[in-house]
């Protein structure tokens, strides 16, 4: 079964072009499922059926796994069975009519405009790192791109004269405008810091670490936690917080959902509609605080 898993992960990597993090998630979910099958004395995946899958999901539930975790596990297992059915390894896909448990969508945490200002004020342009961090945070809030997209940017992906960045995700590409504050921060970083940080003149990465190599997601996570603590912001901040705040603030100021969807790179507008709910909640809060008869 392990060899079959490796072939499946190879298929996802080559044909689906999934990210390393997503591939790791699929691999982990399926390996846990196979470990369960072995505990049940099932030595072959061909001996499993719908009851087997349901029993595994119930087992996860008994262990106290969150509904979102169980739903993700089923999605991984379903993809695995679909792959095997397509390649004639099994005759019937036992997950074909299994419904995923309904996951209650939690509204994302966002910062107020004042909190964003406070966070963006933290990097001080007094050293190389300060110039870089200021440019990164300004660009994240200006464009709403994902952190994975931020650290994947190359110098050639930005056009400061016209004022846009080119963002690639798999086979999809989108062009996103950037404002004057982010443009100024990027110009400062490029002219005063990046050239001194890189060790290889052929380095393409826009944002690099102290060793002159492309910055990692983990490296950025440490940076944003540092500035959150400096700013004494009590809210929990994740690498996605500025992305959520970007979308929510655009909507609050009159942008339409379709435009926000395009800028965020959502394939389905239902993913963008969560920000409409955020805007409604914010209006209710303002009403309660300001109306004399609320």
CATH homologous group name of the largest domain: Intergrase catalytic core
Query: Which structural class matches the secondary elements?
Result: mainly alpha
Number of domains: 2
Tally of strands: 3
**Which CATH class of the largest domain applies here?**
Mainly Alpha
- Residue stretches low in confidence (pLDDT < 50, at least 5 long) are none
Task: Give the % helix.
Answer: 55-70%
Tally of individual helices: 13
Strand order in the sheet with the most strands: 1-2-3
Label the CATH architecture of the largest domain.
Orthogonal Bundle
Structure description:
- This protein is mostly helical.
- It folds into two domains: 2-86, DNA polymerase, domain 1 (Orthogonal Bundle), CATH 1.10.150.130; 113-289, hpI Integrase, Chain A, CATH 1.10.443.
- It has helices at residues 2-16, 20-39, 50-62, 67-86, 113-120, 128-143, 147-152, 180-197, 217-231, 241-252, 257-264, 269-272, 274-290, and strands at residues 158-159, 164-169, 172-177.
- The chain has a three-stranded antiparallel sheet, with no helix packed on it.
- The longest helix has 20 residues, at 20-39.
- It is globular, with a radius of gyration of 23 Å.
- It starts with a helix and ends with a helix.
């Amino acid at each position: 079964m392990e060899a079959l898993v490796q072939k499946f992960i190879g298929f996802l990597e080559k044909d689906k072009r999934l990210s390393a993090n997503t591939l790791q998630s699929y691999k982990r979910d399926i390996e846990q499922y196979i470990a369960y099958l072995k505990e049940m004395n099932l030595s072959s995946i061909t001996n499993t059926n719908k009851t087997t899958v349901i029993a595994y999901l119930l087992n996860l539930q008994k262990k106290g796994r969150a509904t979102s975790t169980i739903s993700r596990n089923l999605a991984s297992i379903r993809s695995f069975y679909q792959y095997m059915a397509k390649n004639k390894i099994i005759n019937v896909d036992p997950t074909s009519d299994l419904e995923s448990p309904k996951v209650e969508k939690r509204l994302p945490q966002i910062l107020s405009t004042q909190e964003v200002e406070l966070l963006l004020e933290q990097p001080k342009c007094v050293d190389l790192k300060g110039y870089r961090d200021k440019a990164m945070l300004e660009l994240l809030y200006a464009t709403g791109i994902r952190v994975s997209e931020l650290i994947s940017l190359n110098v050639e992906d930005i056009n400061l004269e016209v004022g846009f960045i080119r963002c690639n995700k798999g086979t999809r590409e989108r062009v996103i405008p950037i404002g004057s504050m982010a443009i100024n921060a990027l110009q400062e970083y490029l002219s005063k810091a990046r050239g001194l940080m890189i060790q290889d003149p052929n380095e393409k990465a826009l944002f690099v670490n102290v060793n002159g190599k492309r910055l990692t997601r983990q490296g950025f996570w440490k940076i944003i936690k540092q500035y959150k603590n400096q700013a004494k912001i009590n809210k929990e901040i994740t690498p996605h917080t500025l992305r959520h705040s970007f979308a929510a603030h655009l909507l609050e100021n009159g942008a339409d959902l379709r435009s926000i969807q395009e800028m965020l790179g959502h394939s389905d507008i239902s993913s963008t509609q969560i920000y409409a709910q955020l805007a409604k909640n914010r209006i209710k809060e303002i009403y309660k605080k300001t109306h004399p008869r609320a």
